[in-house]
Specification:
Strand order of the largest sheet: 1-2-3-4-5-6-7-8
Helix content: 40-55%
Number of strands: 8
Structural class: alpha/beta
Amino acid sequence: MTGGRPRVFMHDVSLRDGLQAAPVFVPTDDKVALADALSATGLARIEVTSYTSPQAIPMLADAAEVMRRIRRAPGVEYTVLVPNLRGAERALEAPPDEFNLVMSCSETHNLANLRMTREQSVRALRQVIRLADEAGVAVNVSLSCAFGCPMEGEVPEAPVLDLAARFLAAGAQGVTLCDTTGMAYPGQVAALSRRFIDRHPTAQLTLHLHNTRGMGLANALAGLQAGGRRFDAALGGVGGCPYAPGATGNICTEDLVHMLELEGCDTGVDLAALLDCARRLRAQVGHDLPGQVVKAGRRLDLHPAPA
């Protein structure tokens, strides 16, 4: 709590989750400049890039150079996605504050995305956790399709919570519950968030929500009311999983900050500076973005009366 206001920690994933699906390659200089601009907005965490194979995600082939060149601001955590042990070893050349590891709660999605069964992924990611522990790098595990799979349908809570418990026991500091395809709804988000917090009250829970069916902000509000205090979001609402049919972008960072501040939360974010970053990203990708506040203005951005 900050002065009676609940403290909420904003994590921006646009540089990784957003740009991996960009229609054109965003130059390295532009990525570095955007990362530095985001660092000055008061965000708690920035996911800078991914050490996935450049053949798999060519848009992020410059991961190592971007990480070497960004200016790291005090108080901001810099995280990178690492898919496996080799990616983690590459990432240690310019060590981040955190490795973000990913696997799916859905067997079908995990096979499509990672070419492994869930148990194979668990074994592989435990190796990365051991390496991170030796290197002094924190670990977060993102569990994709925690709220539903586009190929399997409903994903039961039990395997989601079991995977979270196994990774926390293995040494991960945090778990992200991901609505990879925008299948979540508010009651579901609230229920799963409460059960996670009840079981792991000291673990860092992050909610990663997509707006595929227009429920992203409603889901975030439900997560907040259930006790969630960490949220992934993407500048401008960019992003989308290439292995999730029909999936569109993440919830929009500036729209979420705008809503949370109106709800009495302390996000620590300078919204005006964040809106400037959204305009910068729009120019870099060369097309309009789904974010609304950058278009309509903040709630009390007033206009002159008509003559």
